[in-house]
């Protein structure tokens, strides 16, 4: 589907903002948006002329950046976009992202057309119930896990009555459940913990260096063999 240039310009800025302060090459932008490098260069020039604070980073891994705190005027979702976003966020019910997803969903719907709000409120959404995750009671502290992963902060879990310190690495979803993948300090090694079985999460304030985790991707490729805490 051909995208209007105005929509692509907004999307380019959003793409750069999401990755700031890391630079993105023109080649990568061209591939992302399905246009030529020459077209992307013209788009970047147009954005600069419009006052968007773009800058270039030289070097082998250089590219284009936008000032991290730059924001565009509010983007108005089309009806189908707002509905798709609301449905996708609704599927995070019961996940570690539930509270944040609910806030984001409310913000999107607050700016959505009346017809979309009415459809969502009435439950008229094009998603079969079998696609929804299994509803489990929110676990205290589980919402802290995404931030701890981003900060590389050690967390203390109470998991099925046992207490242990772990280095949180990833959150995965499978078979209707969310799992925390972490380096377990008591015995070492990568382990999986079902988030609905986590009884409490405590932030320790201790940062960890990912020394043990070079093989995490390999472990995740063999997910069926990663031990899951009982």
TrEMBL record:
<dbReference type="GO" id="GO:0000502">
    <property type="term" value="C:proteasome complex"/>
</dbReference>
<dbReference type="Pfam" id="PF08279">
    <property type="entry name" value="HTH_11"/>
</dbReference>
<dbReference type="InterPro" id="IPR036390">
    <property type="entry name" value="WH_DNA-bd_sf"/>
</dbReference>
<dbReference type="InterPro" id="IPR026881">
    <property type="entry name" value="WYL_dom"/>
</dbReference>
<feature type="domain" description="Helix-turn-helix type 11">
    <location>
        <begin position="9"/>
        <end position="62"/>
    </location>
</feature>
<feature type="domain" description="WYL">
    <location>
        <begin position="145"/>
        <end position="203"/>
    </location>
</feature>
<dbReference type="Pfam" id="PF13280">
    <property type="entry name" value="WYL"/>
</dbReference>
<dbReference type="InterPro" id="IPR051534">
    <property type="entry name" value="CBASS_pafABC_assoc_protein"/>
</dbReference>
<dbReference type="InterPro" id="IPR013196">
    <property type="entry name" value="HTH_11"/>
</dbReference>
<protein>
    <submittedName>
        <fullName>Proteasome accessory factor B</fullName>
    </submittedName>
</protein>
<dbReference type="InterPro" id="IPR036388">
    <property type="entry name" value="WH-like_DNA-bd_sf"/>
</dbReference>
<keyword id="KW-0647">Proteasome</keyword>
């Amino acid at each position: 589907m051909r995208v209007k240039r105005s929509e692509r310009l907004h999307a380019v800025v959003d793409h750069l903002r999401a990755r700031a302060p890391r630079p993105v090459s023109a080649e990568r932008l061209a591939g992302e948006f399905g246009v030529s490098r020459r077209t992307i260069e013209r788009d970047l020039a147009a954005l600069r002329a419009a006052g968007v604070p773009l800058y270039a980073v030289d070097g082998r891994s250089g590219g284009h950046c936008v000032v991290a705190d730059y924001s565009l005027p509010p983007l108005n979702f089309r009806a189908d976009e707002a509905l798709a976003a609301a449905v996708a966020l609704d599927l995070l019910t019961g996940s570690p992202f539930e509270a944040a997803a609910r806030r984001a969903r409310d913000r999107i719907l607050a700016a959505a057309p009346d017809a979309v709000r009415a459809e969502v409120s009435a439950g008229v959404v094009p998603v079969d119930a079998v696609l929804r995750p299994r509803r489990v009671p929110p676990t205290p502290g589980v919402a802290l896990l995404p931030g701890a992963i981003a900060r590389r902060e050690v967390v203390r879990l109470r998991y099925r009555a046992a207490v242990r310190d772990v280095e949180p690495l990833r959150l995965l979803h499978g078979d209707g459940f969310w799992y925390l993948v972490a380096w377990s300090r008591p015995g070492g090694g990568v382990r999986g913990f079902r988030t609905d079985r986590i009884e409490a999460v405590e932030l320790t304030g201790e940062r960890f260096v990912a020394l043990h985790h070079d093989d995490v991707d390999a472990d995740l490729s063999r997910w069926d063999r990663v031990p899951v805490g009982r």
